Amino acid sequence: MKLTKEVFFSSNIIQQIIDHTNEGINVVDTEGILVYVNTVSANYVNRKREEMVGRPISDFYPAAVLLSVLENHRPILDKKIHLVPPNKYVVNSYPIFMDGMFVGAYSVFQDIQEIDQLNTKIKHLEMQVSLSKPEADYQHVVHMGTMQNIYKQAKKIVGSLGGPRHSIITGESGTGKTMLANLIYNYAKEIGVISKNAPFIEINCAQFTNPDIAAMEIFGSVEGAYTGSKKKKGLFEQANGGILFLDEAHTIENYQNLLLKAIESGKIRRIGDTKEIDINVIVIAASTKNLHEVFLPELYQRLGQYEMHLPALRERSLAEKENLFRHFVRRYEDAVWEAHHIRYHVIFTPEAKHAILNAVYPRNIRQMRDVINYSIDASSPLIEDIGEKMEITTVVDMEHIPFEVSEHPETKTDAETPEVENTITEQTAQFILERHQAGQGPRKIARQLAEMGFPIPYYKVAYYLKKSIKTL
User: Fold this and answer.
1) How far apart are CA 148 and CA 116, in angstroms?
2) 76-84 and 243-247 as β-strands: parallel, antiparallel, unpaired?
């Protein structure tokens, strides 16, 4: 039989084609009774097609978009995503007219559960990256305490009348060395020392175990310089006109002479090349080590014209920590808005905030940031539970703070000591010490005291134990 238009429309070929699409299709009359259902639609609700035809669509799809089309005779396109457990789908519905008369409607819909889950994961990952990445704008958290003087010193690196200088930043891991380098970069652009489009190139020197690869990355290479080498532009060339930030710079001992020559002459030579390339780069070297003891004296002298040391978080004032705390909470709220367009309000209970501000952070600011983010994550609702809400408030309590962090609060100031001593009576003090000797932690002891009618916050129990044990 030859396939013609008449044969095509009179045979079951259309049925075969429609049943092999990825979309579900429903057709109803003006009363909402199903007159056609394809296999995909039937599979969504775990029914057979013949069971569905002749029955109201609402028996299978209670919130069907078709019901609205039957009322207003107008199409509805991509307006809603319905949930027919466990499937999510997006639907387009259209009215059907014959000779100008409205006779029914049909819907075409597609399962988007996997796409929706993937989009959710992508948004979550984007949000986590946004929360974890080093920041360029810390302006509002450096204008107090130790950072105020350091930032003033940092400005002189690029803002002095004698022109920009190279510099060294030292400090423990997580104290904000990358942050400070970004501040210097932004300030240099602000005052016109470098252009608005000047590059900021960052490299962690510790990632290289092979000194040849490290040299190739920083200085570039030509094809054939050594086995497997290719023509490659190095980081100095990429940073030309801007700033090259060498993190963990103490690991570059194998090519200090090349670095010294580049800084002194303003020229670099790709590995394996004879041609010199002019460069204009401000070098900032950062390290957790004392570079005076690691670098060649000549290299240290050239880089260390300005050396700044960032204090550990434990050495900073409570006011400075609180400023950082507010910054990271606000950053989380902003990230939620960017990812989901939800106005998110995060509230820490006094106990939780006290524990965060007075905990010990071996990894310094980076760890404090991660603990704050983790605590907010723990208190936050799931995306699927939010629904259509555009504004949400979450409360972070002690139970949301990572146990290993909150178990080790720092020593409080002397001004706080009387408050704790006045709260803990002789009776409760004896109970706390007995429970502690029995192997119980401050959190559990605080719960037991509350049950006995002595609501003493966890952090006060922890402080009392720390103070008492020192005096024993």
Assistant:
1) 46
2) unpaired
pLDDT in tens, 46-83: 899 889 999 999 999 887 888 899 999 999 887 656 55
| Secondary structure, 3-state, the chain | CCCCHHHHHHCCHHHHHHHCCCCEEEEEECCCEEEEECHHHHHHCCCCHHHHCCCEHHHCCCCCCHHHHHHHCCCEEEEEEEEECCEEEEEEEEEEEECCEEEEEEEEEEECHHHHHHHHHHHHHHHHHHHHCCCCCCHHHCCCHHHHHHHHHHHHHHHCCCCCCCEEEEECCCCCHHHHHHHHHHHHHHCCCCCCCCCEEEEEHHHCCCHHHHHHHHHCECCCCCCCCCCECCHHHHCCCCEEEEECHHHCHHHHHHHHHHHHHCEEECECCCCEEECCCEEEEEECCCHHHHCCHHHHHHHCCEEEEECCHHHCCHHHHHHHHHHHHHHHHHHHHHHHCCEEEEEECHHHHHHHHCECCCCHHHHHHHHHHHHHHHHCCCHHHHCCCCEEEEEECHHHCCHHHHCCECCCCHHHHHHHHHHCCHHHHHHHHHHHHCCCCHHHHHHHHHHCCCCCCHHHHHHHHHHHHHHC
Half-sphere exposure of 353 (CA within 13 A, CB side): 16
Q: Which residues of 139-166 are buried (b: 16+ CB within 10 A; e: fewer)?
A: eebbeebebeebbeebbebbbeeeebbb
> Exposed, middle or buried: residue 321 (CB in 10 Å: 0-12, 13-18, 19+)?
buried
Given a contact cutoff of 8 angstroms between Cβ atoms, the answer to whether 38 and 108 are in contact is: no
Rg (CA), the chain: 33
Side chain identity at 240, as an amino acid letter? N
Residue type, 293: E
Packing angle between helix 145-159 and helix 177-190, nearest 10 degrees? 50
Tens of pLDDT, residue by residue over 399-457, are: 888 765 644 444 444 344 334 444 677 778 888 888 888 878 777 888 888 888 888 87
Query: Within 13 Å and on the Cβ side, how many CA atoms surround 401?
Result: 29
Dihedral, CA atoms, 335, 340, 342, 344, nearest 10 degrees? Answer: -30
Q: How far is CA 303 from CA 296, 300, 337, in A?
A: 11, 5, 42
Cα separation, 372 vs 210, whole angstroms: 37
pLDDT tens sequence across 79-109: 656 555 556 778 889 999 988 899 999 999 8
